[in-house]
Amino acid sequence: VQLQASGGGLVQAGGSLRLFCAASGRTFSSYAMGWFRQAPGKERQFVAGIGWTDSITHYADAVKGRFTISRDNAKVTLYLQMNSLKVEDTAVYYCAARSRGTVSSSPENYDYWGQGTLVTVSS
Question: Would you say 3 and 110 are in contact if contact means Cβ atoms under 8 Å apart?
Fold first, then answer.
């Protein structure tokens, strides 16, 4: 599976962005997917995950109620809708795929990674 993240940019605090992760490969629908982020000088951290069926989602406490993860298996695309953005959301955001269909918050459990897209939230 190859992943390509996009949609990042510069936004003011309180604004919204939608990230996209385009995937290749016929097995996309059987993979659990996740979004992670990494701020400068910090470790990569889990943001949100979705199981192979989009009824199962999991969010980091820091983004609950503000971010929504979704997927369109027909379009082979993963999304992250980010609302009410805060300065502390500034980071490079990565999408990842896990060959097992269950959600995980641990980056080491993911098999494939996209190249990352930068989100900058200004005050």
Answer: no
